[in-house]
Amino acid sequence: MNTDEWTQTLGAGPLLGIAAAAVAVLLVLIIGLRVHAFLALVSVSIATAFAAGIPAGSVMDTLTDGFGSTLADVALLVGLGAMLGRLLEISGGARSLTDALIRRFGEKRAPLALGLASLIFGFPIFFDAGLVVMLPIVFSVARRLGGGVLRYGLPAAGAFSVMHIYVPPHPGPVAASGLLGADVGLVLLFGLLIAVPTWYLTSYLYGVMIGKRIALPVPEILRGGSDTDESEENPPPASTVIGLLLIPLVMIFANTGLSTAGEAGWIDGDAGWVQVALALGSTPVALLVTVFVAGYVLGPRRGRRQSVVERLLDSSLGPVCAIILITGAGGMFGAVLRASGIGDALADALSDVGLPVFVAAYVIATVLRIAQGSATVALTTAAGLVQPLVMAGSFSNVEVVAIVLALAAGSVTASHVNDSGFWLVGRFFEMDTKTTLKTWTVMETTIGLVGFGFASILYLLG
């Protein structure tokens, strides 16, 4: 049976209770009983599906669809990113770029430099792909300067998060802009004006502060436990590393530009050459090309045999398998919550409360985010719910943009165990679930709150 043909009969109250109980059980299993996160997520997903009344014949389809759709987004990006990271780490490229950053910005401003670089990379590149590409640089800086990985990792991860949430061409703000009739150019302009100071306050300053309080060791996941003496022999110059990192940036940016031009009618978006260019500029293809180029530039061109490069690439995949599976299971849990109708029931109940449209947009998006995990789903669903109110009102262009940004702020709030990004960050930084809640969840929540504050100012001025 397809869940689209099934109607949820439980009300918002019982569904909210099921969701809260599922999250509580999950935390007890992982934190209290030390059950492996993958096993806990799969088990709780199954139990939640039955408790929410999803037809027994649809339970496995719901689970596998959620798992598979998450892996479709994550597995290729993480796998290719891990290969690229392994090449940069072992070749000494990450260290070369680290030395250049430290010479240019100084040791004290290294977290700022990493964050600013991530903001630039985060403009066209999605959160998970950008984070994985930057990780070898982040780990190398943290290993070189000391002070724990969070001091350098959170400013970088937060940069990718704010760009993904607030700034087109990322899918959430683009979809919300289309639903509400907002000018995408204005959303881009004001999204940047909100994203950058929000990042500085919530990711850079907070990351440096919490990094001093929680000094986690630098993960060895991209090294594979190997001896780093090999990377000392013939390290590539920093300019070579920057060139390699620019390959996916340029390809994805070209994809974004062509998509925008097609939607605006400047070019024929259905033309064969455009479709080919869009496919070549997709994130997985861009990373694949980068891995091939890096394999040659950092391998045979610098005196390493191809067999050595093959061994390095093969060894990069083992350590990230657990991350991929756990992230997929987190997506499975979120999919079960979406299929059960928990988010829809809560959103319908909230829409009748009578809040001002601007405030309702933030609250509904926040509730949807907490209920089902996906920021993009929360943003687009909440935009659809407030669309009739926006269309019926007499809002200025700037006010509509502010409502889009309020939706975005709500959709990033309170990342927790039903969010695949929560597990991606936690496992790459080798944090346990409790520490991830204390660091990543707090940072994402402040990104939402501060962003909503800035959007409120824009709304009042608009």
Radius of gyration: 22 Å
Number of domains: 2
Average residue pLDDT? 85
- SSE sequence, one letter per element: HHHHHHHHHHHHHHHHHHH
Q: What are the low-pLDDT stretches, counting only 5+ consecutive residues below 50?
A: 225-231
Shape: globular
User: Structural class of the helix and strand makeup?
Assistant: mainly alpha
Taken as a percent bin, the fraction of beta residues is under 5%
Give the helix proportion (percent range): over 70%
> Main beta sheet, described?
none
How far apart are the first and last residues' alpha carbons, in Å? 48 Å
Number of helices: 19
Beta strand count: 0
- As an assembly, this protein is single chain
Commentary on this structure:
The protein is an all-alpha fold and about 450 residues long. Helix content is about 75%, strand content about 0%. The chain folds into 2 domains: about 60-175 and about 185-320, no CATH class; about 340-460, no CATH class. It contains 19 helices and no strands.
